[in-house]
Structures are given as structure tokens and as C-alpha cells.
Amino acid sequence: MDHHVHVLRDAQQGLVAVVELACIQALGRAFHQLVLVGSAALRVETPGSDVDVVCFTQSNGEESAGMPVDSLRKVHKSFSALVNQYANSGASISTQLIEDARVPILRVLWGPPGHAGRWPRNNCIAVDVSVDQSRPVEHVRWFQSVGAAPSTRTPALPAPLVTLTLRCVKWWLRQRQIPRRKDGGLPTLAWLLMTVHVCFLPDTRDQASTHRSTALMTLFMAFFAHYSAPDGLDGVLSFAPDHSTSEFKHPATKKAMWGELSVIDPTRDSSEPVDLAPHLTPATQLLISHELRRANLGLRRIPRIEPLFGESRKILEEMFEPLPDGANSLPSFTSTAISVLLLWGEDAEACDIELGMVDRILPRLGWNASFLHRTDDRSELHTRLYDVDERTGRCRRKKIPNLILCPVHFICNVNFEKHGSNMRLEQDGLERFREMKRVLIEMRSRQQPVDMRAADCLAAGTQISSGRTRHRRPSHRESRSKNKSCDLPTQTGRGRQAGDEHL
Q1: What is the tens place of the pLDDT at every residue in 422-453?
Q2: pTM of this prediction?
Q3: Hey, which of 65, 96, 410, 429 would disulfide with 107, CB 3.0 to 4.6 Å?
Q4: Closest among 375, 351, 352 to 433, alpha carbons compared
Q5: For residues 298-310, average pLDDT
Q6: What are the structural domain ranges in the chain?
Q7: What is 161-319's CATH number, 3.40.1050.10, 3.40.50.720, 1.10.1410.10, 3.20.20.140?
Q8: Which of 334, 336, 301 is nearest to 317 (CA)?
Q9: 282, 458 Cβ separation under 8 angstroms
């Protein structure tokens, strides 16, 4: 991975230089500086990572630079003119101006001739440009101030051990397709802060200093051990104003089956805390808990004193085994039936993992993205449910009417395979089904009173399919949490989301 990143950096710098030239030509005296932020600035980039830059403007003494989106339009026009001068350079460059997002961006893609906009991200270089966004810069400075990212004053020094751990966690998120903020999961920034917290725990640091030859593995194992615990995603993570300490405070009493995670932005004033973690649906929590547990169990099989080769290397390769594209994403349209795992029940106590065949998808009015958001309780999934033999994976249609469920019930996609005259789950899907069942049993065993919000979420939109469908509008409690924002992204589902910017 390091070799891949180092090879790309020269090309990335060249593309960023062209972007900077476009900014200078487009904005003139209103241009102030172009600042590198996000993964590249933190040195936690992985293959396929975007390069994020912020263009800062200034008043030229006569008039202001205008709105960020206006500046981006000028930069877009200037960049297109520059690119046209090098149309025969042997590579293709495509641009996309995303205006209808909370944070408008100009995306520049560089790739093989004729394929810049179509090649897989690992084969392209992507630069995302935003204007006058100070928060990403503050986040980079914060990570540098606590020693979790290299300082720009010492570029020749190796990346700190914590930085390497952040990169490993980010690679795991990518390989296992853990839902991102735009899908209804946690923002990357929240994951990085969660990693920093574990790396700086006294016990973790002591273990890493004692076994320096395996220090990186010690930090990596500590991360998964911490958050795969039964209450690992239930609590409030905050950092001291002077960055000297952090605390993950669990609820005094466990009152609900499902956790409530908060990650407080350390760059904001403590008098007005900003929570970077959105409300996670029970189905999304179950998926994340399963993946954390899977990684933790695998790492625990690695002997501490054995060098990373042989059996240990095999375990690590299994842990980072990439899932197929779209394995944890629900499309907004399908021409053929798709098989999925769902978390469904009349209430939080009775919810269970179900195998469903989605025959038809009806996105909510105004939704134009290619995927559905995991907090969406208005889009419709016309579904047939199946019983699964946990020993063989054989599937049999349940003797109940078809249901109309919602994306809030969606856990992940799975695949069927032909087995004689019957169908059965493929081995990977069957293993996920079994393990998630175990996780659900553990969660249920810790439950005290009924979690009413989870109950509303699981029951939201459930109907019996009987010809004409009447869509029930969810109540206020179903569509919006009391303490957490469940707002869906913009109608296109593109652009930047709060807390996930530039990472």
C-alpha cells in the first residue's frame, strides 16, 4: 500500500499544481492560497483516496470574492480552458461541479485516455476542490497537535505510529465497505478520532512500548478489541480542550438494546459541542458490530511473539479481504430481484435477521441518487421473506404475504446459488447470517426496557403487499431522533456531508 501511495504522489502533485494555476487565473487578486487537507494532509491516504484541497479567497480591496459556489464556477471554467490546451497529453481529465450539496465541490478526475470518468477509483487520481472551508484545516492541525499526523515542519521524518494505525483502520473501512456518512454510517473523521482515543489510552501505550517490534499490531488490535465490545458503540467520546486526554463515557445504566454513539468534534468550543456521529439505525449498528467483531476475533488468533508471516499473514489477509462492490449498499433501482439481509420486527424485542428477496424498489419522491440512504423510512422495498437453514444455507419461502419494507431495515446484500432444485445462501453470506445472529443474541441479552426509538425504526413503513400500496407517512419520532439528526443527504446523494468532509 505504501508503494502504491508513493508512486501516485508525483502525479497527484502535478494535478494539484494545475488546479492551483486554474484558481489563480480564475480568481486573480481574490485568490489567497490552496491548502492540502484530508487524508493526504494527514498521510493516512490509501489506494483510491481522493486528494482534498481548499481554495481560500480574500478581498481584493474593491469587492469580495463572492459565494463559494460562484468561485468554483470560475475555477471550473478556467481549469477546463487549461485542460483543452493539453488535450493530446496521453491522459484523460474529467470534471464535475457539484453545486447542490451542503459543501459545493469541484471534482477533477485524471485517468487513462478516454476513461477518466469511468475507470475504477483505484486507477484514477481524484482531486476535490472546495472554497473557504476552514473546518478541514482545523481538523488537520488538531491531528498534528496531538502527534497523530506528521507536522508540515518535519516532512522528512517517518509517519508516527498512530498515523500508520489510522491508515490501517481507514484501509479496513474501505476494504470491508463499512457504510460511510453519505450512506447512513459514521463519517471517516469519527472513525479516526475513535482510533486516536484508543491509541493514546495508557494501557495501549504501555503495551505498544513494551513490544516495539509489534507495536503497530498492538495498536490495531486494541482498536478492534475496544469497539467490538458489547458496549463499544454506546457512549460519548470527547477530548480535553488542551488535547491532553480523551474519554469514552458509557451510559450509567444500559437502558436500550441498541447503542447511541456520540463523537464530539475536538476543534469546536466545548460550550457548543458538535456531534460528528449521526444516529445509526439498528440494522447499520448490527452490520458495523459484526465487522468489528469479525476483525477482533481474527486478530486474537495471531500470536503476539510470532513475526507476521505464515499463518499470521493469512489471518491479516482474511481480515482485509475486500467485499464485492456494493455489498453493503442498497441500490435505488433494480431490474431483477436482489437478495438482502434485513433486520425486521414488530418491535425492538422481537426484531430478527431475515433473508429477503427484493423484487421492486420505489425511491422516495425527489430522490435521484443511485443508492438509498440507510435512515430512509419512506422509500419502499417490495420484499419476499425466506427461512434459512443455518447448517446448510438452504432457503425456503416463508408462508406469509409479501411485505413492503424500507431501507432502515437493510443490513447488507447476499447472494443465492443453485443447489439441486433449491436455492441456498453462498458461504460468505451464510457466515454473515450466522455471525450476525450471534451478535443480535448478545445485544438482546443486555437489553432492559424496550428501546422505543429502535422499535419505531424497525417497524417504520412495514406494510402487507396487497395490490395497491398505500404509503404510511412516519411520525415525527420515526423520521427524526430527539437528539440526533437523521436528515437525508441532498436529493442527488452527492457532495460533502458534515463530519465527513475531505476524508
Answers
A1: 889 999 999 999 999 999 998 887 765 545 55
A2: 0.85
A3: 96
A4: 352
A5: 70
A6: 2-132, 161-319, 338-479
A7: 1.10.1410.10
A8: 301
A9: yes
